[in-house]
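User: Sequence recovery, please. Input:
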């Protein structure tokens, strides 16, 4: 396991958001319960959460990355409250059910890629380091970016780079990749960077020309957006009444999914098409948005990676999940 460091983003804000419960006599903090960290990384958020919880509490931590799991396992040896699960958060519900857990007090998500993943050249996530073009978070399965680029056609490559990177030169980059691979497959980060630089000449201020392409390929190869959309309803199902979901996103595609999902569980998207409704037919929201928080200037100065972060907080209401689903489709 690499010992690269990860600086947790919006740390105090996310732990407070997970633990505060508003009661009639003001704010109270939970100091006991069952919590889940869906994206352990190097445990910045988990460790701070554990510091605020008593010895009867439990913390289930997930990560797809074997290095993150090694780090989490070391923590679990020192702290019996920690339970480590090497899997995607998309499998959270079944993994917890198999451990006899069907309700939790809070779920923490700190989405995307960690600093150790970016800094370790062997992982191939960064255009700054020479390494194999891998980019899989879970190195025990799946297809590397290099392998995918060997077979995908121009249109598939263009679509990924455009949709997930919002790259206006997506067509040129896709054509260049396909033309270069006829001579030699693109196997390293440096080869991909050279390929992008040969067709992207205009640079956005402060951004490397390959930033968007690398982001797009990473999101695609790890199925990041699909997994987030798929998993979201199970997070809501798992939360106890007044349990909290706290999610940090780093780009607008992720944040849009979190925002839309929270809104759909507050008021389903087909609500207006069903009007008028009688009082008894009115849906009882099963989730309540508690807003969003951005990092302050001080945090951005200390940790540049935090500049694009947004934290969204939502609270489960006491309304039953099944009633809500009977008449509405929050997945749409
Ligand atoms: C931003 S880092 C989390 C950092 C962590 N909060 C900390 O303070 O150290 C995101 C982590 O989530 C993991 N990850 C991303 N998508 C995942 C998924 N669908 N399921 C489980 N882990 C995931 C990545 O492998 C990475 O380790």
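Assistant: Recovered sequence (332 residues):
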């Amino acid at each position: 396991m690499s010992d690269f460091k990860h600086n947790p983003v919006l740390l105090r804000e996310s732990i407070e958001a997970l633990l505060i419960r508003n009661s009639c006599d003001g704010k109270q903090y939970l100091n006991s319960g069952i919590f889940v960290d869906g994206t352990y990384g190097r445990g910045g958020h988990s460790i701070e959460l554990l510091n605020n919880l008593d010895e009867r509490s439990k913390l289930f931590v997930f990560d797809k990355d074997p290095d993150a799991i090694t780090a989490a396992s070391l923590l679990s040896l020192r702290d019996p409250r920690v339970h480590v699960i090497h899997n995607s958060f998309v499998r959270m519900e079944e993994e917890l059910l198999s451990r006899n857990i069907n309700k939790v007090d809070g779920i923490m998500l700190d989405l995307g890629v960690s600093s150790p993943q970016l800094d370790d050249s062997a992982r191939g996530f960064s255009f700054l380091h020479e390494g194999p073009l891998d980019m899989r978070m879970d190195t025990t399965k799946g297809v590397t970016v290099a392998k995918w680029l060997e077979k995908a056609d121009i249109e598939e490559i263009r679509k990924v780079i455009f949709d997930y990177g919002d790259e206006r030169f997506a067509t040129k980059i896709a054509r260049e990749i396909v033309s270069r691979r006829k001579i030699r497959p693109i196997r390293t980060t440096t080869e991909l960077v050279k390929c992008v630089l040969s067709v992207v000449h205009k640079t956005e201020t402060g951004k490397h020309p390959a930033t968007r392409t690398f982001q797009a390929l990473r999101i695609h190869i790890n199925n990041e957006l699909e997994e987030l959309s798929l998993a979201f309803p199970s997070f809501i199902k798992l939360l106890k009444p007044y349990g909290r979901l706290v999610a940090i996103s780093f780009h607008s595609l992720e944040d849009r999914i979190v925002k839309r999902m929270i809104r759909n569980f507050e008021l389903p998207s087909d609500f207006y098409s069903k009007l008028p409704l009688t009082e008894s037919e009115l849906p009882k929201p099963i989730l309540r948005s508690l807003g969003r928080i951005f990092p302050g200037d001080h945090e951005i100065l200390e940790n540049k990676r935090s500049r694009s972060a947004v934290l969204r907080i939502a609270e489960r209401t006491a309304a039953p999940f099944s009633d809500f689903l009977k008449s509405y489709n929050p997945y749409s």
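The chain has two domains: 11-115+224-327, 139-221.
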